[in-house]
Amino acid sequence: MTKHLHIAKNLQIELREKIQKKTEEKYARGEVLEVLLKKFATRVKRQCRNGKNLLHESSCGCRCNDRYWNEHGDITKALMEEFAKITKESVEIYGLAGKIHDLDYLMYPHDLEIGRGNQKLSGCHPLPLVKFLISLNVDPEISLAILEHAPHLKLENTTRLSIALSACEELATLISFNNEIVLRGISDLAKKISCNVTPKVIVDSQIDGEPRVFSSVEERINKPLMYAFEFIKDSKLN
User: Which pTM does this prediction carry?
Assistant: First the structure.
């Protein structure tokens, strides 16, 4: 097992143990967002996918700028809150998990290492964020969901919150701040939890020639979303 997978597995075990021992302890929630933004919203100079050096230029249409990721966080938050209402889960917890789940990506992008064929992922997204959340005494369910939503860590979703975050983030990749509404194969459930997202745009598009969704909407969006809904409704897990 490579180093980053070993670290992720140990963090998963630690967080699962914390969840099992949960009491009525007050965890950091609302106030944690400002702390996280200060730590991870650093204007790191990145190489744009268009080949230009930039300092998070908001005019760039790629995913290398903070505007895209701020929108992605807001969209995922909105979807998670709607999902929580349907399933009678905590809107606050689900919304916070959606908002912060990718905050460390720009500073610690895992895909650049993968693209170079490197395995130096032990300091890459989302491990720095998860470790910092633990240090802040954030609800371990939130930390675990963020850890398990990252496919490159090869961890199974083990909680209702974790499964919901993974499913809602997939849907969030289809939602963009554009002027047109394009619906392509989106299920009724996906439409329902997306109805309060502003602007109401669901797109199946490309960014810089790279597809945002690499398989069919049915396989990538509708099935995970329905599975999450059924799992949360029926499961006795956390």
Answer: 0.84
